[in-house]
C-alpha cells in the first residue's frame, strides 16, 4: 500500500495518478497497460499473523459477555414494542460496545481494558433501578410463573454482581495504564 501511495504521489496530473492505481504495477506514462516487468517493485511476502493462546479464564469471560450480548440483542428485537426509545438505544449501544470490545481484546488493543471498565460500570449503574428487559424476558418465557419471582431476583443480583466485579477487575489495568502514560509524559517533558 505504501509503494502504491509513493507511486501515486510521483505521478504528474490526475489522469496519470488514476492510471497508476488501476493499471499494472510496472506501468508508467508511455508504457503498455500492464507496464514493463523490469519496473515491477519487489514485494516482500506478508507476515503471517498469529494470535497468542489466551488463558481459559479469559476465554470464559469473553464467552459469558458474548452470550449476554447475544441475549440482549435478541431480547431487544423481541420486545422492542415494550421498551422506550431510550432503553432501546442504551441496549443497542451496549451490544455495539460489547462486540467492538471483544474485537479489541482479540487484537490486543491497549484501550480494551479501559473500554471494558467503562462498559461494565455503565451496565452496573444503568441496572440500579432494575432490568426491565430481563423482567419482560422471564415473564414472556413463562419462567416467572414456573419458578416464581425469586428467579428474577437471582438473575438481577447475579448480573449486577458480575458486572460490578468485572468493572472492579478492569479498573486496575485501566488505572495502571493511565499511571504509566502519565509517567511517560512527565519523563518526555523533563
Description:
The protein has 190 residues and is mostly helical. It has one domain. 71% of the residues lie in helices and 0% in strands.
Question: What would a concise description of this structure say?
Answer:
With 190 residues, the chain is mostly helical. It has one domain. The protein is built from eight helices and no strands.
Count of separate DSSP helical elements: 8
Tally of individual domains: 1
Helix content: over 70%
Contiguous low-pLDDT stretches (5 residues minimum) are none
Q: How many strand units?
A: 0
**What is the mean predicted local confidence, pLDDT?**
83
Order of helices and strands: HHHHHHHH
Largest sheet: none
Measured distance between first and last alpha carbons? 37 Å
Based on Cα principal axes, name the global outline: elongated
Amino acid at each position: 500500500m505504501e509503494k502504491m501511495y509513493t507511486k501515486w504521489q510521483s505521478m504528474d496530473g490526475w489522469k496519470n495518478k488514476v492510471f497508476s492505481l488501476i493499471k499494472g504495477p510496472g506501468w508508467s506514462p508511455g508504457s503498455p497497460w500492464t507496464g514493463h516487468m523490469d519496473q515491477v517493485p519487489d514485494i516482500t511476502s506478508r507476515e503471517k499473523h498469529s494470535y497468542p493462546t489466551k488463558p481459559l479464564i479469559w476465554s470464559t469471560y469473553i464467552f459469558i459477555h458474548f452470550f449476554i450480548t447475544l441475549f440482549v440483542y435478541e431480547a431487544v428485537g423481541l420486545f422492542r414494542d415494550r421498551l422506550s426509545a431510550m432503553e432501546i438505544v442504551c441496549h443497542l449501544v451496549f451490544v455495539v460496545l460489547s462486540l467492538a470490545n471483544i474485537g479489541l481484546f482479540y487484537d490486543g488493543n491497549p484501550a480494551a481494558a479501559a473500554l471494558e471498565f467503562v462498559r461494565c460500570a455503565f451496565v452496573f449503574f444503568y441496572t440500579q433501578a432494575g432490568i426491565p428487559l430481563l423482567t419482560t424476558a422471564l415473564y414472556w418465557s413463562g419462567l416467572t410463573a414456573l419458578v416464581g419471582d425469586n428467579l428474577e431476583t437471582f438473575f438481577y443480583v447475579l448480573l449486577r454482581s458480575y458486572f460490578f466485579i468485572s468493572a472492579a477487575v478492569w479498573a486496575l489495568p485501566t488505572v495502571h495504564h493511565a499511571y504509566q502514560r502519565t509517567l511517560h509524559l512527565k519523563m518526555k517533558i523533563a
